Amino acid sequence: MQRGPDMQWIINGLVREADIDFRTSLLDLLREHLELTGTKKGCNQGACGACTVLVDGERINACLALAVQYQDRSITTVEGLGHDDELHPVQQAFVEHDGFQCGYCTPGQLCSAVGMAGELKRGMPSAVTVDLVNTDIVPSHDELRERMSGNLCRCGAYNGIAAAIASTLATEVSS
């Protein structure tokens, strides 16, 4: 097993160190080595989105990322979304709109929704964005669903998920 010296990551605002094999995925670092089990291992192939986390505010599939690549970068897992015993607005909306059933996909859905909101604020178009020049993208029904298409829900709670995200985006846009 190829190991390096202790490596460090900034996870949920805290510096975390571990002595791991260079081939360890970011997902396995989080779950197996740092005991942050909120991030789920679904397909382990990057197809379901259950392992979605934020790196420097952008969403990635942690199962496809080598942990060594993300040293000294700001990583946010579902455990880091809320602050001071308060839920993140997206988490609160998921509760209010019944955006989960079994909850297995929920951590990835939440991180993906937060990352998506950042993409919209930065004016990043998606495959269904009509006007590629306009950076003020309206999070329409189709736009929202396209952007969340990388996150599967095995229970089919898509309507609640979409409603929760839409309500959160509407609140952010109006404030």
Task: Produce a short descriptive summary.
This protein is an alpha+beta fold and 175 residues long.
Question: Could you walk me through the main structural features you see in this protein, from its secondary elements to its overall organization?
Answer:
It is globular, with a radius of gyration of 16 Å. By secondary structure, the protein is of the alpha+beta class. Strand 1 (7-11) and strand 2 form a beta hairpin. 32% of the residues lie in helices and 12% in strands. It has helices at 26-33, 89-96, 106-121, 141-147, 158-174, and strands at 7-11, 14-18, 52-55, 58-61, 74-76.
Any chance you could write out the topology, listing elements then pairs?
Layout: E1 7-11, E2 14-18, H1 26-33, E3 52-55, E4 58-61, E5 74-76, H2 89-96, H3 106-121, H4 141-147, H5 158-174
Parallel strand pairs: 1-5
Antiparallel strand pairs: 1-2, 3-4, 3-5
Helix pairs in contact: 2-5
List keywords for this structure.
single chain; 175 residues; alpha+beta; five-stranded mixed β-sheet; 5 helices; 32% helix; globular
β-sheet strand percentage: 5-15%
Q: What would you call the structural class?
A: alpha+beta
Per DSSP, the total helix count is 5
Quick one: biggest sheet? Answer: 5 strands, mixed
**Element-by-element helix/strand order:** EEHEEEHHHH
